[in-house]
Amino acid sequence: MTVTTGMVGHGFYNRNSAPQMSAIEHVLPWLDEAVAGLPLEGGGAGGTIGLADFGCSEGRNSIAVMRRVVEALRARTDRPVLTVHSDLPTNDFSRLFTDLRPEGGSVYAAPEVWSAAVGGSMFDRLLPPRSLHLATTFNAIGFFSRRPLDRLPGYIQPNGPSRVSGNGEVTPAEHQVFADQASHDIAAFLEARAAELVPGGKVLIQVFGASETARTNDGLYDVLNDAVLEVMAAGRIDRAAYEAYYQPIYCRTLEELTRPIAEAGLPFTIDKKATYEAPVPFVEDFAANGDLAAYARDYTNFHRAFTEAVLRLAFAGHGELDSLVEDVYARAERLIAEAPERYPFTYVAIAALLTRTEA
Fold this sequence. Notes:
Layout: H1 12-15, H2 18-25, H3 28-36, E1 49-54, H4 60-74, E2 81-87, H5 94-100, E3 113-119, E4 132-138, H6 172-196, E5 197-208, H7 220-233, H8 239-244, H9 254-263, E6 268-278, H10 281-289, H11 292-314, H12 321-338, E7 347-356
Parallel strand pairs: 1-2, 1-4, 2-3, 4-5
Antiparallel strand pairs: 5-7, 6-7
Helix pairs in contact: 3-4, 6-9, 7-12, 10-11, 11-12
């Protein structure tokens, strides 16, 4: 079953992805180190160096990362470079294509740099054997490859409500099913990349997650859950529809991110790993200027960019789907404005840099 059709398109995700870029910036120095040590002597047709970003969405952050990598590579070699930007076939690639060729020329402004987009699931093999030197994914691997349960009756997100909210429940048995799926997905992603990478190639995984003291889902999904409950109370959906709807994402700990490597016997070593908190622009702006209306709007648009597609899939049979979706996010924005202390948002990120070992 499709878990999502992708992020909201038409430029909306690009405009509301600054927090994601903030989380990415923390690990950009890791990429610099990785590029400096990439084995450039083998793999790739015609001596091409292959770079791929999985979960590129509309491309704003994906292109920014690739520009940094290409610049670093050009300091080492003049070999051809291919950047691959990949996402689901249903992703809106139109802005990506436009931004890859601004004014008719490559955005990378370097000789012998070529770009392509590939539609497909990041949990499958998408590229030829040993065609990649570097693979990245930022946040997208937090989405499941499949819905492991048909219903999650007590809450709309598998990690459960925050301690601040406490409005809802995910049972230990339900949580374990999702934890197992998250582990399976990491193994599937890395198994696919292992086939595509040259020996010595690198993989950088960065994703929203959980630490000992905070989780990215806290606050964020509490407000969405409360908004959907209001819609149900207003009679726009019934209890069965609420129980069948959940956001298919999981906030892993760093240990949950890295454990499948050893458990599945995957051919990777761990170069670096970290848990950290990323600064969130709209949170910082609110702390500085106290503009509650702007905070509620930006907070809502941020999570709408990656939750709306799932909401539309869940309620696809609703007779007034567009109106329902607008109602949910209008209620979420109102709830944040009425009680911002009930929905605090902390962006916990986890990351690991891996090296593909010899087969």
